[in-house]
# Entry
Amino acid sequence: MPDLSALTLEAALDLVRQLLEANGELQAKVLTLEQQNADLQREIAGLRSPPGGGAGATAKPDWVKANRPPRPPDKEKRKKREQAFVRLKQPPTRVEVHAVERCPDCDRKLEGGWVHRTREVIEIPAVPVEIIEHVLLARRCGVCAKRHVPRLDLSSVVVGKHRVGVRLMSFIGWLHEIGRMPIRRIQSLLMVLYGLHLSAGEICEVLHTLAKKGEPAYGDLQKAVQAHPFVHADETGWREDGVNGYLWSFSTPTVRFFVHDKSRSHEVPERVLGADWKGILCSDFYSGYYYHPGLHQRCWVHFSRDLKALKEKHPDDLGVSRWVDGVLDIYHRAKHYQNGDPRQRVKAREQYQSELAGLAEPYARSDCPQRVLAERAVRFLPELFTFVEHPDVPPDNNAAERAIRPSVIARKVSGGTRSDAGSKTRSVLMSLYATWQAQGRNVLAACQAMLAGKPQPAAGDA
# Structure
């Protein structure tokens, strides 16, 4: 602050002008703050006003959210689910309790306590292989001086003179057939899990023993297939010692039967099913199944796939598109036909056959894109709608396709078998393990029971 007594007149006037300008700026700021204060007071009054409006109520700002409307009192509460889809906690096999023994602040010993929380940990035990040595002691009678040795019956725990027990045999068979693991992979897995070393030759011998013990059950499976009213049949390639052959599959809802043969002719299904078999044969359109004099059901999935491929090949041909849609429409109506009267089902089958014949015959004798499939429809006309007359028979061959699919994967992994004995073993084991799976049985327990010679349910029982 300058000394006012020493100021000249000009300096004093200049100071007065500066003070007047500063005073004007301060007054302008005061007016602005008063206006802002008034606006804020109105906003506060609006927020404090009653929700429904009325006297003293003001409009709410845009950023204020509206209250959620109350739930109607008569609305029903949500029903509880019969089953909660949550991960259930399993009963523990071992409980480990953790607690603080001494106070970390004053070092006082702590006792008692309550459960604060729990944590579940699932782990597999590291179990070494169990090697059991049976020692037979010879004892001599002091009276008659005869030597006595106990008779050892291990038929329930081991097969013949094998050193591998029935549980380990069953597990090796499961790894080979269900797990589709090659011999070397089985050998490695047993070493990693149990510290057990078995040679590749011993593992092969175990599989041959399993097949030999399963031959009676394998024969029962063939009889069960022959006794069923309808059978699904299919075949796929299978190499034996580098030579092409075929693996044939014959399936019912609860039985799987496989047989290896170098031939793909009709003699194989005729030999397996029997020359006098009178059931319904479900198959694709392969000529190896023509021999059967009884009823057939040709696979509509194969036929539909070819029809759709024809439609995709000629996307601009309206005639082909309409013809394919017409054939598929007949099939879908037949597939969803429902009537319990056998006589009505026979009439319905004849009606669908007549419709398909009327749609296919004009094109079977003409030069058009659909001629080949039309000829197929005319040729197999009596064998396409058997499922309408016999409702238990499916219109496709998916059962055989699903049954033979694991063997196709196994062939890609292993490349086939090396000998006739290996092919025979593979056929027997595939049949047994696939049948146990189809019947919903415990595969390992079923195999152990077979090796131990315990009574088994009849083949074909679910």
Notes: Residues 9-48 form the longest helix (40 residues). The CA atoms of residues 338 and 391 lie 9 Å apart. Confidence is low (pLDDT under 50) at residues 458-462. The two ends are 111 Å apart (CA to CA).
